[in-house]
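Here is the promised in-class demo. Please do not try to memorize the tokens; focus on the logic of going from shape to residues.
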């Protein structure tokens, strides 16, 4: 038997209900914030992710589904959504037109990671990307949007916040951190020794506990921000206070992708095991320019949909629509045509085999229909149909014309 690949799942009925409910809720909220749907291809040039997510990141270094296509192009399945949206933004000349553009998207992403609970190789993200706003008010809006989405779904979270500084304050901080790492070179793990040479700030989120203990002593970027980054971060935190959104400042939150500057945040849940990040994002003011566009400030986030599914409090499912059945073969053509007519306005399930009333009622219950409509010999002779409301339990016979 051929099975699905490791870390890649089918989305079946109950899961799909949860996906659907999530998308519906999140998309409605994103639209309320003025965001428009965008869809970009699943397959892109590998260079796009190398240049945006960064060659030193685990995503690009170890996790890409990368191959050469039949035309000899180096391509890969998208590991995340931001790079493709930025490419589309530049390719369609939004950067040249100027102004503010806000997009949301959802769909599958692919990362060749070691699968475990909450960590898949094909997973789904719901993301938003906002272009053209320098103000930290937009960062606040995105955090408020996530807060709205999680509240609407009944999901509790903790928000972790950091600032990654800008081109003015990051380079001198990197130097400070490097000299700290040089001084402790023998104590840090092999991964950190490697990261020290490629992207030193990534050492801060190393999972190794002895590295973590050591980095408690490391210089903190939050204490070395330039005046404008410091003020922006202060504005953001006081706005969050004003809006009663709780957060903790995590000075080790650096995110696994290289494109961030200034605001970085992660929403975590303590109810889903070790893969606790349910959303992450931040500002990436230099990425558009870096991908050859006109410099444009930008900020965004993505939610990991699978990690949310079991946390979502689904509203109670309501019985819906009609179930049509015939009690003898002669009634079947009439049942079919009535069912098809009903379908134009309501969800309708049609049973193709003649069955007893009891069997039809059982079927109607199984498909969670509101009404069970059945035609037997009696009804056929009187040009009528028997209908039971499965909520009120009321039964009646009505003429086919009035149906
Ligand atoms: P990210 O933190 O890499 O950010 O991913 C966002 C979310 O996707 C994570 O918080 C997690 O919930 C989910 N996720 C990541 N990897 C997996 C996996 N292997 N299995 C299941 N879920 C996973 C980004 O992707 C950025 N593009 C977010 C962003 C948008 N930043 C700015 N704009």
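The designed amino acids, position by position:
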């Amino acid at each position: 038997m051929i099975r699905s690949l490791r870390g890649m799942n089918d989305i079946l009925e109950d899961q799909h209900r949860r996906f659907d409910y999530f998308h519906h809720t999140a998309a409605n909220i994103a639209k309320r914030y003025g965001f428009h749907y965008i869809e970009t291809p699943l397959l892109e040039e590998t260079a796009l992710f190398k240049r945006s997510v960064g060659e030193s990141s685990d995503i690009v270094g170890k996790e890409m589904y990368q191959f050469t296509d039949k035309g000899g192009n180096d391509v890969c399945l998208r590991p995340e959504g931001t790079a493709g949206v930025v490419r589309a933004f530049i390719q369609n000349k939004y950067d040249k037109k100027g102004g503010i553009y806000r997009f949301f998207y959802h769909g599958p992403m692919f990362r060749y990671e070691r699968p475990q609970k909450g960590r898949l190789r094909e997973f789904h993200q719901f993301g938003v990307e906002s272009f053209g706003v320098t103000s930290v008010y937009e960062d606040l809006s995105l955090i408020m949007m996530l807060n709205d989405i999680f509240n609407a779904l009944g999901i509790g979270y903790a928000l972790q916040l950091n600032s990654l500084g800008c081109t003015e304050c990051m380079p001198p901080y990197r130097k400070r951190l490097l000299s700290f790492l040089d001084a402790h070179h023998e104590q840090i793990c092999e991964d950190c020794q490697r990261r020290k040479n490629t992207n030193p700030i990534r050492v801060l989120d190393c999972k190794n506990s002895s590295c973590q203990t050591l980095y408690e002593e490391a210089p903190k970027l939050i204490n070395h921000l330039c005046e404008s980054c410091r003020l922006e971060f202060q504005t953001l935190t006081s706005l969050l206070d004003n809006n009663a959104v709780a957060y903790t400042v995590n000075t080790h939150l650096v995110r696994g992708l290289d494109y961030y500057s200034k605001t970085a945040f992660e929403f975590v849940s303590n109810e889903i095991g070790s893969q606790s990040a349910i959303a992450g994002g931040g500002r990436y003011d230099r990425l558009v320019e870096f991908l050859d566009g006109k410099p444009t400030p930008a900020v965004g986030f993505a939610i990991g949909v699978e990690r949310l599914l079991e946390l979502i409090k689904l509203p109670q499912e309501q019985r819906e629509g009609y179930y049509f059945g015939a009690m003898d073969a002669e009634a079947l053509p009439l049942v079919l045509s009535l069912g098809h007519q009903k379908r134009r306005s309501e969800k309708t399930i049609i049973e193709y085999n003649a069955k007893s009333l009891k069997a039809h009622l059982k079927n109607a219950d199984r498909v969670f229909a509101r009404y069970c409509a059945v035609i037997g010999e009696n009804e056929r002779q009187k040009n009528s149909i028997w209908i039971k409301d499965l909520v009120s339990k009321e039964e009646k016979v009505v003429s086919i014309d009035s149906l």
